[in-house]
Amino acid sequence: MKTTKDTRSAILDVAQDLVQRRSISGVSFQELAKRIGIKKGSMYYHFESKDELAVALLDRVADGLKNCFERGLHKTPDERLLYFFRLYQQHIGVGMRICPGGAFAGEWEKLSEPVKNAAHRLIEVQRSGVEQILAAGDAKQAFSLHGQSVRATANFIVSSIQGGLLTSRMLDSEDPFIDSAMLICGYLGINVTREALLG
């Protein structure tokens, strides 16, 4: 028998997969309940509204990503950056889904402030994590930032990767994402093969 915590996690797992494939507007409590195997009314025990569900989903992803960045601290700067790229491949499934945060961008004007804030936090966790990697690489002269600031380079990387995910989804191919990651590595002066990037 599932506990309340197990049921909540199961709801978030299914909701996240649907959001990454369809966006938040493509998620209904009716479908979630059916997929989880509970009554629709039971959904409201865990989440009072779709906004509450969206915030919980985004917060969970942000916390998980933050923990992943922290687990990579023992690696060299270039290993940390490759680890960051591989997180997308392993946890998002390039070509199949888009980033949970990016999935909310198309409906941005329709979102409530709490949902916008949670999506903003997730992007900030990504950017902050990349900034830490870049700062470490710059300090060790492992990266070439070409005279750009750490913040500007982090914005470039996050934007390129998000765009690569979106294009990969539309073309049903990993190539746009992998090519984006490879070009970022080349820009920074990291010598890596496609095979090594794929892990």
TrEMBL record:
GO terms for molecular function: DNA binding. Gene3D superfamilies: Tetracycline Repressor, domain 2. Residues 5-65 form the HTH tetR-type domain. Residues 28-47 bind DNA. InterPro entries: Homeodomain-like_sf (IPR009057), HTH_TetR (IPR001647), Tet_transcr_reg_TetR-rel_C_sf (IPR036271). SUPFAM superfamilies: Homeodomain-like, Tetracyclin repressor-like, C-terminal domain. PANTHER family: HTH-TYPE TRANSCRIPTIONAL REGULATOR LMRA, TRANSCRIPTIONAL REGULATORY PROTEIN. This is Transcriptional regulator, TetR family protein.
